[in-house]
Every structure is written in structure tokens, then in C-alpha cells.
Amino acid sequence: MAAWDLSVTVEDLGPDAPPVTLSVASDLHVGGVILKLVEKTQIKRDWSDHALWWEQKQCWLLRTAWTLEKYGIHADAKLFFMPQHKPLRLCLPNGITLRLRACFSNPVFQTVMGICRMLNIRHPEELSLLRPVEHKKKKKDKDSAEEIYDLTEVPLSSVSRPCLYNGMPAHFADSPQMEAIYKMLSVTQPPPAPEVVAKQYRPASVVDKAHIHGRWLNSSRCLLQQGIQENDRVWLRFKFYAFYDIEPKYDVVRLTQLYEQARWAILLEDIDCTEEEMMLFGALQYHISKVSQSEPQMMSSNAAMDDLESALQSLEVKMEGESSSASEMLDNMTAPELNDYLKIFRPKRLTLKGYKQYWFKFQDTSISYFKSKEESIGEPIQQINLKGCEVAPDVNVAAQKFLIRLLIPAPEGMNEVYLRCENEQQYAQWMAACRLGSKGKTLADSSFQNEIQSIRSFLAMQKTNSGSHGNAPANDESINTNSLVSPRYNKKYKTKQLTPRILDAYQNVAQLSLTDAVMRFLQIWQSLPDFGLSYVVVRFKGSRKDEVLGVAPNRLIRIDLGVGDVVKTWRYNNMKQWNVNWDIRQLAIEFEGNVNIAFSCVTADCKIVHEFIGGYIFMSTRSREKSSTLNEELFHKLTGGHEAL
Amino acid sequence: MEQVSDEEVEVRGEEEEEEEDSDKEDQDLDKMFGAWLGELDKLTQSLDDGRPEQPPQQKAPLRQETNMANFSYRFSIYNINEALNQGENVDLDALMADLCSIEQELSTINTKPNSAGSLARLGPTLYLLTHQASLSMDEAARQTSSHSLSSRQHRRTGSVGTPFHFEEQAAKLKADNIRVALEKIKEAQVKKLVIRVHLSDESSKTMMVDERQTVRQVLDSLLEKSHCGYSPDWSLVETISELQMERIFEDHENLVENLLNWTRDSQNRLMFTERIEKYAVFKNPQNYLLGRKETCEMAERNKEALLEECFGGSSVSVPEMEGVLWLKEDGKKSWKKRYFLLRASGIYYVPKGKAKASRDLVCFLQLDHVNVYLGQDYKSKYKAPTDYCMVLKHPQIQKKSQYIKYLCCDDIRTLQQWINSIRITKYGKQLYINFQEAMRRTEAAYDWSSLSSSSIKSGSSSSSLPESQSNHSSQSDSGVSEMTSSSHTRSQSVVSSIFSDAWRRGTQGEV
């Protein structure tokens, strides 16, 4: 067979080096070409990751046994010889950018799998990559100053067999720098300054959101085929909102990043919520950032011990002591009390009397009060059992107002009682006691001191907030409440109005462990009505106007753009089949009961919508048994369309 | 809550006794109780005197607590008296057996005051509890020291290689002992209550419940006694006659805790009756979970998939529930229309002149502290637009109050949808677990009956029910079946036949 010249650009020779010319015959296989090429360059190195890229056809020549003829390569082909793994700048859900080596030759689905393996994120099928939103011209190119965590040195071989060391993949245990990166991945970021949030791009409408979803990369094609070059920036995000088998023990990074994505979705109003929900999200963020700063490795360790176990421990400690006579034990076991002068006010009773001072005693789960300290041995004027009551703070540090509002259920209705404390110290103690009491716990409960501590730190926060303003550094004592809610509420409320409301919500979550708080945040997020909706602007067959299709984990919804209301819901459960006509780029779906819909996509390629539907169906096939390995083939079958492997 | 003072309790107790009937049997019983109560007082007295190192400042609470002990017993007796007054169908034998066992335990305390006994059950109080605790801990300590001693001996004689093992074992033993001691402490403070349960045929049953029992457990024992045929629909219903409302207790709830919310002179009733609406959500989930206005049929495998989808995940999805309801204005007999929405975080309404965007919603009520009740005959009582009313209130509220919220729906279907959606929001997965548990009991009962009669076919396949429910049902078997593997060829038909029975029963009475 006749020999002809094939010219190949070898990337490793530098950008200006001329292409290497080889003399080949058409029956030479690709492996042979590579061998010749390597010999000719006379560079000794590991070439195993390198492969040939055919520029005109935009494809990799990965089948080394195929001949040039079979590939249809002639002398005019422009070939590049380069590594399949190249550095990529990856923006994580927590807003931090990593630089790592990602696969440019396999379908994006596999590229994501590789990335997730490196970062120790389980269930990579739920994530994908999308093109970043272009920033409008920034005054100074701030991005260049941005810190980039470099993971390009991680050997690819070690990533393929991940083994854990100290609870993290071995490649993160190599150096302090690497450990720092892992910490960044697995510990939640401090709340962003309100200015940072305000500066971020916020989708203002459903159509804006739809445009973001048009940026997802095609899972069936490789990065290079989609125009992503070396060192380009892409976003890694959770794409399918069906989070399977979350296990805090193994999912440290996954949970952290999921939390970050949810948090940003709330802060940027990507998902709508009510004011009460926003305050609760704020309280949880505050709690999470506080706890993660004080105990950074909590996520990996187990959640809070149950009561019995902690009781056992404290008992054991006592029994180890030298004198364990019954009498002394009795002293130890006597429940602690609080005793102090406080002022009481009952707003419901139609008296003109204001606050009256009494001697108060908190014992068990009840408050009793007496005329004076001296009379406290006798019968109390009244005893109030706090079990099941509602406790709300009414505090203004600047005005030195420390009020505990109690709403106590009784057969006749709810009794309102206000207790007024003199100072912070007293307030923290009594407030903590009331909260425990309302849950049926006594002062002997181990959480009493924690409760006091969390009340104090919140008071401290109110103090710093009322003093200074602006972006306070996010250290423990002074988290800016403005950074916990979306800009809308920052405009609506002043800090001194906002803080008590978050404090109010905070009391219900203050005792959660870090993991539980993160899980709670995710749970509340997931139960929002609009959770998990990805939007696409579509044109239904026979319709003359644009409408929005919302793709959720279990259903499709049709939204009227004019009214903003959901017009129709179709559930995957009732879906019989769906087809894509790739020529006219139209999706047709058939549901049970002879319901047929067809639409073309305006803001996204129809492949993206096809992938969403197929992807969610794939997510639902993941079996309950833990043993399951990722069924990649099925994913591609369901999402690949005509590009299916 | 304002604690009822001790004197008041005594007086009320006496009143009840005076009120009592002159039935002979009753008096005998009462005499017995009287004697027994006296003994109880003596007992507590002796315990009081017998305590050596009693800190003086604790005297006052102790006195109070002893009275409290009497209180809880008087309460029970009052209930019995009431039951006896009503006459019929009192299971006196069972009751006596229960009481005798208590008496027995009491006498053991007398002879062996050191054991972590059950005196505290008479009135669980901090003081008595701590006393018991200290005693039993002392015991535990003694046991522990003996254990550790023996382990030390082991170490001396045993092989050199395993000292660590022994130490570990000793620690474990110690922990076990403490655990046992703690359990005893817990056991010691169990409260019991004599209750009267009304049946739908106007008869009633009297039984004793212990404060640890869930509604499910009480239902089980009632079903066992009454031979009325098993069905998951059997319910314990609380009726608050003063407020004209009722609520089906959820199976996982604690019965005693709920009953203790009743006032002493309460006219409330506890009913044992079949209620189709109790688990209608699970029999026809498509009518509740899809936010649709009209009832419809659904293929059974889809029902199962829908339930799995809503309740199988880590977070329960709240049914899309929204619409115009009538709200009773505080203190007036006028009703105002508002557009309400249900969310996981509570019930909201759309303020006047606003769209229903989430951020503009006003929170009407959070569900943590309130229960949802069914209002009865409010058209005449409160001039409600219809008789399809629901009520939201704190369980402890028993009288008219501004803290009770009344909502009125246009039709019974909407009402049932709201009530059930609120239940799902409040209890989440627990509700589904309750249903599955109830179904399991029912199936088990069928199993028994099918031994004698073969009339119920689905009974034989009952064991497959729990399995098939835990089996994840793929959504794709409805649409893209060619893609899915053979793992879905499970015994669907078997399951659905069981379910169809339930559903048929469900749809019959459903609205």
C-alpha cells in the first residue's frame, strides 16, 4: 500500500513547534501512528495518557486498533497529539475555584465521575458541569486575584483506586496544603458578606433561570467536543435533585457542597420561600457556621450521642470517684435550681399593674414565685409548669431590655406571661432554663450550659451588629445577620429588626449537631414547593407563544409566562414513552390515557431537556440495595439519544 | 399552667365519692380502695420517717409530692367510679387483676424498701425519682465493684496476652449494670390510668392503660377483646363535646399523655370506632397527594409508586394544598374568605391585593404546637357557611379561646383533603409507618382467620407485603419498560390484590 505523509502537531513540543510529519500507509492502525510519533519526538516520558485528536472532525481517535482507513483519515487531516487529561478550572458549589486535571476525551458523564472520585463525592450521576455565566465587564479583573486551589499534581493513578486515610482520600493526606484543600471541600464556608451576595448575578425571572439551565454540558460528549479548552472555567453543580442514599459518615464533601448549593440558591432567591422560612434558613446558616468553626471535624464523627449514653457516661465518671456513698450520690443527683428576683407581667389580665417583682425559683420544669426570698420556703404564689409551652425572646441589648415571653397552654387557652430580667447574665440563664423546660427537660440536662452559651453568643452578635455595620469579619462572635438572608430582606428590614427574628427561629435549632443542622437545612430546602425545578422556555406544538417547562424529579410542569401559574402537571409515573425528533429538534411525550405533548426548546438545546427527563428516570431506577454500582450504560441509554454509546 | 393546689384535689376527689351511686358492688370496691389508699399513705409515711439522711430543706416538696401521689390515684378511682355509675359492660375482673398486681408490688416495697421498686409510679416526682435513683445506683455501684474485682482476679491468673480484653469486658459489664439500673428507674415511674372507651353501639368498655402505651397498642388490645374483626380503620377518637370537635388519635401517639390534657370535670369522650378517613390517604393517594380538585381512579401499581415517592425519600413532600377557605373571625360569628396555602413550614394565606408569590405570603399558623380537629355542626353553633369545618388548636386547650382557629371548607372533599394534608405535613413518614403497621396487623389477623375459613384469599400472601413495600418501585416500569431490568418482575399482582381489598373498602366510605 502506498505511503503518504501525515502531519501531527505534538502539543508537548510547544505551541510554535511545526507539526511532525510521518510517513504512513492507510492500513496502519492508530496505535502504530502513536508509536512512530513517539519515536520521532525522541522525548522519553510517560505517553500513556496521550491520544490523537482530529481537529476537523472534532473527535478523538481512541480506538488504537482501528486503521487510518477505517477512521477515514487522509493526508489533509489535522491531527493533534496531546494528553487526554488537562487542567480545568472548576468552580464548586461553595464558590471556590479548584484547578484539577480532568478528562477531555471521555463523555462528560465520565469526566464528572473522575472529578467526583478525586474530590470524594459519592453518586457523581447527580452532578454535572455547566458553562459559567459570563461576568459583565468588571472594573478590575478581580478574578486573577482570586485564590485557586491547585489539585493538578494529584497523580491520576491514585485517584482511580481511592483509599481513605484519616477519613479522607489518601491523596489529600500528602501535605498540609492538600489537607487544607480537603478542609475547604468538607467544611462549610462562612456566610458571605452581604455586598458579595448583592454583587452576584441573581436571576430575576423564570426566563432568566431558564437561561442558566441552557448552559449544561452534554453528558454524552467530551469536553473538547463542546469547545471547552485547557484551563477553561466550568461550574460543577448538582444537576439532578434526587439525592440518593445520603450518609453523613461517607458524604462529608457531598453534603457540604450540597448545603452550599442550597444556601446560595436561597440567598440568591433562585428558589422562592416565605419570610418565616427565610428566617429559619438564616438561623440554620448562623448555627452551622458557628458550629463548624468550633468543631471543624464534626462532620466526620458521629452525630450527638443519645441521652442514655451521655447519662451513662456521667454516671460512670461519678462512680469512678473515691467516695461513692449513697448520701453523696444523692447530693449529686439533686436537680439544680435557679433562684432570683425577676419581674413578671401578664398582658392578658386586664390590670393596669405593670411588672411586679417576685422571688422566682426554677425547679424541675416549673417556675414558682414567692413574695420574697424569705418566704420561699412556704407555698408559692403560683407555680407554672413550662412543659409544652412556647418561649420567645424579646431582647434589645442597646435598650437593656431582656424579656422572656411565655405562651403557656391551659384548658382555657394560652396564658401569656412575660418575665423581665435585669441583665444579660440573668437572661441567658433563665431563658435557657425556660427553653429546656418547654421541652420537658430539667436544668440537670446536659444541654443547659450549651443553651446558655448559644444565647450569650447571640446577644453578643446583636451588640456588635448594633454597634458597627458593613462586612464584619466572619469570626465566631460577630456574624452579620445581613449575610444570612437574601438581599430582599436586607432591604426590607434593618439589622436590629432582623436579628431578633433570626434569634427567634434560632432557638429551635440551636441544639442541633452540625450534621443534623445541615440535614435540616437540606430538608427544609427540599420541602419548598419549587424545589428541584429546572426551567426551560419551550414552544408547545400548535401554540404561538413561549411557555416555560419546569422539569422536577418526579414531574413536568407547564407554566404560563403571562400569569406565572402552573397550568398543567404531568408525572413521569404516567409516562409511556418519549421521543426526540433530532431533525426538527422537537420532543414528543406520551402519557397514559392518550395524553400526547410535543414541544421544541427555545432557551436550551433539546438534548438538555431529553437528558433531564431521561436522567430523572435513571435516578429513580437506582435500587434500594446498597451494593449497586453505577449503571453507566443505562444512563447513556436513557439520556444519550442518537449519540448513545 | 397553674398547678391545682393540693386542697383542691382532695375536695374534688371527695365530691366524686359522694356523688357515687349506692350500688352494692360499687361500695365494696370503694371500701377496698379506701383501705388500700390508707395503706398507701402509711407506706409513704414510713418511707418518709425511715429515710436517714434527709436534708431538711427537702421536706416541703416531699409533702407536696405525697399528695400528688394521692392525686393521681384519686384520679383513677374517679374514673372507675364514673365507669361504675354508668353500669354496663365493665370488665371488673380484668380491672381487679390489674389493681391486685399493683397492691402486690406495693407490699413488696414495704418489706424490701431498698429495691428500686415502683413506689414512684404513684406519683412520679423529682424527689421520689432521685431517691430511687440514688438507691439503685448504689446497688449498681456495688455490683460494678464486684464485677471489676472478679475481672481483676482474672487478670492476675489469666494469660498475659489479654488484659486489655478483660478491661474492656469489665467496662462493658459496668455499662450494662448501669443501663439496667437506669431502666429500673424508668420503669419505676410508670403511670397508669383507668379509662372508659365508648363503642359505636352506645356501650362502653373500661380498661387500664399505662402511660407508655401508644394508641396502636391500646387499639390492639381493644381489638383483641372485642372480636370486632380487624381493619386498619379502627380508631380511637377524642371528642370534645364542649367545643363540638373531634380528632382521631394517631397510632404512634401516646394515649395517656393526650388524656391528661382533659380537665377533671370534662365531658370529653374516647370512642373506639371504625373511621375510613383515618388511612384514606394511603388507600387512594391520588386524591390527596396530587393537589387535584377532582377524585379519580389510579392503577394500583401507580398508587404504590406514588406513596413510595412521597414517603420513601429522606424528606416527605408536602401535598400541594391551596384554595379559598372561610376563616372565623376572633370572637365573632362572622366568617371571612381567604386564600390559604399549605407549606412544610405551616399554613399561610395570601394578603389582600397580593399575588401568591411565596415571599408575600403571611404565616397564619405553624403546625408544631397545634393539632387539627374536625368541627361538628358549626353551621348552627357558629353560623359557619357550611358544616365542613376544621379546627386548629393546642391539644391542651379545652375551652373556648381566641387561640382556637376555625376554618370552613366549601365541601367535604376539600375538608378531608386539608385535614389529611395537614396530618401529612405534621407527622410525615410516621403516618405511613403507622399505616403499614396497621396493615400488617390486619394481614396477620387474616392469616389466623384463614386457617379456619378460606374465604379471604389475600390473607395467604400477607407476608409479601412488607417486602414489596420496601422494594423500590421503579417509575420507568410505567413508561420505558424496555429499559428496565428484570428486577421489577416482582409479585406485583399479589401485592395489589391485598391493596385492592383495602382500597375497595376505602373508596366505599370515602367522600
UniProtKB/TrEMBL annotation, chain A:
Annotated Gene3D superfamilies: Phosphatidylinositol 3-kinase Catalytic Subunit, Chain A, domain 1, Pleckstrin-homology domain (PH domain)/Phosphotyrosine-binding domain (PTB)
Top-level taxon of origin: Eukaryota
Domain PH: 343-439
Organism: Sparus aurata (Gilthead sea bream)
Molecular functions (GO terms): integrin binding
Protein name per UniProt: FERM domain containing kindlin 3b
One GO cellular component term noted in the UniProt record for this chain: cell-substrate junction
SUPFAM superfamilies in the record: PH domain-like (SSF50729), Second domain of FERM (SSF47031)
GO biological process, one term: platelet aggregation
Cross-referenced PANTHER family: FERMITIN 2-RELATED (PTHR16160), FERMITIN FAMILY HOMOLOG 3 (PTHR16160:SF1)
Entry similarity comment: Belongs to the kindlin family.
Pfam families, sorted: FERM_M, Kindlin_2_N
Swiss-Prot/TrEMBL keywords: Cell adhesion, Coiled coil
Coiled-coil regions listed in the entry: 298-325
Automatic annotation (TrEMBL), chain B:
Secretion signal, residue range per the UniProt entry: none
Primary location: membrane
Chain intervals with Acidic residues compositional bias: 1-28
Keywords: Cell membrane, Cytoplasm, Cytoskeleton, Membrane
Source superkingdom: Eukaryota
Domain Ras-associating: from-to ranges: 191-277
Positions of the PH domain: 319-429
Entry-linked InterPro entries: GRB/APBB1IP (IPR039664), PH-like_dom_sf (IPR011993), PH_APBB1IP (IPR039665), PH_domain (IPR001849), RA_dom (IPR000159), Ubiquitin-like_domsf (IPR029071)
Keyword ATP-binding listed: no
GO BP annotation list: signal transduction
A Pfam family this chain is assigned to: RA_2
Compartments reported by the entry: Cell membrane; Cytoplasm, Cytoskeleton
Name under which the protein is recorded: Ras association (RalGDS/AF-6) and pleckstrin homology domains 1
Lineage start: Eukaryota, Metazoa, Chordata, Craniata, Vertebrata
Name of the gene encoding the protein in the UniProt record: RAPH1
